[in-house]
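fwd from M.: "can u put these together and see what the complex looks like"

so here's what she sent:
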Amino acid sequence: MENQSNLSRRAFLKKASATSAGAVVIAAAPMSVNAAKQEVRYAMVIDTRRCSGCQACSIACKTEFEVPIGAVRSWVEHHEAGAYPATERRMLPRLCNHCSKPPCIEVCPKNAEGATYKREEDGIVVVDESKCTGCAKCIEACPYDARFMNPFKGDPVKTAGNGSVDKCDFCLHRVSKGVEPSCVNTCPGKARIFGDLNDPTSAVAKLVAEFDTTVLLRGEKTKPSVMYIGADWLEAKKDKKAAQFSRLDSHRNERSAHRFA
Amino acid sequence: MFDRRKFLKIGAVATTAAVAGGVSLNAKAAKDLPIRGNKDFSPTTGKERKAIPSACWQCVTRCSNMGYVEDGRLVKIEPNINSIRTGGTLCSKGQGAVNHTYDPDRILHPMRRVGARGEGKWKRISWDEALTEVAARMKKNRDAGTPEKVVYHYGRAKASHSKTVGGFFKAFGTGSIGNHTSICEGGKWSAQELTWGGHFDNWDFDNTKFVLNFGSNFLETHTNHIPVAHRMLKAMADRGVEMVTFDVRLSNTAAKSREWIAPKVGTDAAIILAMTNVVMKEGLYKGAGEEMLKYTRVSEDVNADVATKIKAIKAHVAGYTPAWAEKLSGVPASKITALAREFATKTPAVLVTYRGVVAHYNGNEGERAAKLLCAVTGQIDKPGCRMKAVGAGWKFPKIKSNAKRKLNIFDGFPGQAAYPTHHVSHQVLKMIKDGSAGRPDMYITYCYTPAYANGDVQENIDILKDEKLIPFYVSVDPFYGDSTMYADLILPDTPFTERWTAEDMVSPSQVAEFYIRQPFTKPMGEARDFSDVVFDLAKRLGVDMGAAKSHEDYVRMACEATPGVKEAGGFEYMKKVGVWHDKNAKPQGPVYKTPIPESVYKAKGVVLDKASGVYWKPASEADAKKGYVGTKKAFKKYVAQKMPHGVFSGFAPDAVNKSGYLELWSPLLKAKGFNPLPTWMAIPEHQKMAKDDLHLTTFKYATHSHSRTMNCKYLAEVYHTNPAWINPATAKERGIFDGDNIKVTSPTGEFVTKAQLTEAIMPGVVAVSHHCGHWAYGRYASDRRAPGEGSDSRGDRDYKMKWWDDNGVHPNWAIPNSADPINGQQRWMDTVVKVTRV
Amino acid sequence: MLQVVTNNVSDGHPDSEARTAIEVCHLYGLLASLFRAEPTHELLQVLRSPELSQLFTEAGFNIEEDLAEIGDDDTLLEKLAVEFTALFLGPGGHISPHESVQADPDGGSLWGDETLAVKHFIEGLDLAFTEEYTGLPDHISVELDLMANLAGHEAQGWEQNDLTRAANALAYQQDFMQEHLLRWVPLFCKKIIETADLAFYRGVARMTRDFLASEAEDIKRRLELAGPPPTPTS
């Protein structure tokens, strides 16, 4: 067996094309490879240079989980700024940041029972829909707006029929079987790269070493596991004139505006 | 009150009734029921989803894909990672296609209209009844000696679908077959056929150093979208390749470019000609350009040497100075000059042109100007440049054509377009109304919505509704579409997730990829793939479809007959893997330089046509006397091109009688009164605009195709409404604020939409996307309930979650059906409008 | 509230239970064919046969009257076909005859969880769909066909005095009635009664609703009579 300990797409492609067409499975399960017991920290690097804002990831996620209309686990924002003709539009794919210090978990009244927690073995932040009461405190606490109510999930009694909280889980059901997340799999620009940050040979670790990466809301001390290449503009001081000509488009935001209107 | 005893008595005598309808269940084995509790033979959990390689059809790109099926239900569509075209990626549209299969408004049974056209009253009929009716009507026309009155009009039929469905109608005897290419990019293709022969071009982003893009939004949508988009994104990130994009609007493609330049609408051709002027003036043609000119025709004299050609081009473009182009386009002369230099020196470079250039009155000339600029910089059909595209050459079973008659309604009105090699489909309904070229007795649409897809929507609807103009309208459609609602008979087609096809779309790697589409699931309800239905119809009509018995059969035979695919394992291999390419094949490079041996061009029957320098094989003495250019379909007899430095395969013609040169001086255009060299043609409507008139342009958003995706709920959720983009300066002049309702009016019609004030569009233009404003096509597209509605509907849990009620507008109500005078392309981008606050 | 007269139905003798089961079987079959497609000429003839027509009237369903209102046979078949299409097929809004759509009060999706459950139930019985059947597993006509099939098995049990066999078939009927039919068909019928233009389909819906309600009760009685169903040995 090759010493493959990451979910790099290249390795993945090689493996899969060596076998037959259908089975999208990586030979080496990421968690079982390193001989020395080492904590895995799954992370995603998003190379915005490779993102054209095409929404393939949004739809991959939507179909993977049959996410109800009105809710999104993964989405793309289009940030427009600057006065004509110096107008720019930047793409910002979004998902749960799987923070190292997740504020959402702290506020959960049922966190001791495991309604939502950060998995020790790989750092993925998950919701256990069978334990969630749907109180929505975590939705408010998340500074990234990554969580939502899923009316079709959860224990009808515990949630009083309101549904459970839901969110991105890095496609745990795929990743645990050695298959990369659905959004990563489909991305035409290969802008989303997924793997174990603690493994220095992984694609994500290499990218983080090579590039200056940005995280969303660095000041919040949430320490996200989603890092961006080519998104320095997020931290640039807002130019007053530019701000005058800015608009943010995403169906997620449109939906929120609609919801709160 | 219900009396059980009395009721049960009915059961005692109703035995015949119970059997009359036939029952839906069979015992698998003749044995007793299994013991209760033994239900777990078919576990629902922990089962791996079944993966089926197939191909997409959401847009004409037709990417390879992989469908996942659980318990007989299609649950997910992903890329096929083995495809060399797509690099194992898939766009949002392709994945959203799961919604097609389970569209709550899918039509699952043949339906016959019972009310007035468009009223929405239907009766389910059996397939047998439906096909009996269709066959009888076809037969009646054949018996009357007018098979051409059976008109088959498709929107998309490619590869084996085209061969079988189109093949059926031709074998039946009608040549009245229409397409929809003129509302797509037919003009681009015609212009390429006039110049380099061959309609498709590929942009070799894998090997390029610079991309100059006029009017293509290929990162969001394109004829070969994902295969080129993923290559460009890679080139940009991995190799730092830069792109400059000309577009009136900041598309996502423009946004990813080094520079976005907005020219005045319809002036791209002027800029390209001015760039050529710079190249000629500054001697940037030296070297590669001179070499290319050996194979290029720029004057009447087919024996001219390169120096003479250079002189001719210089003379032709002398007036097209950057300053001249600046006046027309608003793009600074210095910018045009700098980009011309960059394009000529940062080689190999790709010149991209698409609908921003070709969907105009002067589109043909814009495309020909692009070929000229590529020629003088030596960047034609060369790695890293725009190249002749390579598709899969299947060996398809033959279906013999009997089409000897056709209605002349597909190429526009007489004189409307000089060389409409891809037809003028958007004028078909108007020509039926006019009637001077005859009218159909039977109009059959397949994967096509003429009412919605073309301009002048109101007229389209009026014609479709008029039984005097179209006595019988059959729509083959999986959904209750915007045109299908006016049909007399609906034949429920399968969505592509339930079809077979042997597919052939071009591969930007320049190595052909063979791939197939196979059903993920069985057709739902009574839906049937029309390419199977035609085999059934053929039987009823005694039409010979050749050796195949069904479309699956046809695909199987193609797999077993096509070299390479056959050796790899044929049909069984393709069903398992989905794609095949020759791993030892070298990317196809230039083909025009291949020397042709004397034994070929001096073979018996081959003659030299002196005027064009073409070696060809005239069918008769008379044809030989008429000459190559003047003989009908002479291009089919082309053998080689004589040039001063030898005889070569050249840029072989494939649709018109062009020479084997890269023909930039066109005797064909000259014969029709156009300038034979690429020439600036001002757009008539734009010359007489009033001060407050604006340009209306259209565009596409990444999650949608032109007209067929708004019923996909996940795609509709991302993009469902299309406010008009308008620059704040332009809006201010009209007192329009962001979100205001505005009225867009043209001589053709008007529509009301919301204003989206954005700095991402140039002043003087209003841009409205396609996709939206359906009046049918299911609840996610239109919220429309057809008449005969019950208290609920075949719904899904998501419809009640639909949080938007603004389904957008359709700009085509205000866009006329008009045509490029050379190639007939619909002029999507030429409309002049008035915009007012409501 | 629906009143159901269930007295005087059976004397508990296996022979009369067999007769009941056969009648039940045929009734399911009749209702299934009424929901499967628009009536054919043959079916119409059967419904209007003097014998059956009389029985319908006695049972409180004036089918002959409902049909006579409409016109001659050709008009009738045409009108019934149009009504059937508008009610159950679309295009556009209609009352989906599928459990997975109806089970969710807000409209579920085709091929939903219920569809799978029905499919598995049927497969678990070693039954398969006929080749001609191209619809979904949870179409009302399939569910009624399934009950007819089970009632047929039950009848054989009674006829052969094999009470275990009858009980087994009854237990399946009970499960399917409770887990599936009763969960959606009453509401489905209510919608038809509220929507249908023709009295005929309102009558069909009423028959279906009332028959299922009475069967739900009577299955319990027959099951008690037949004794406990067999349990799996392994």
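replying to her w this: Chain B touches chain C through 83 residues (CB under 8 Å).
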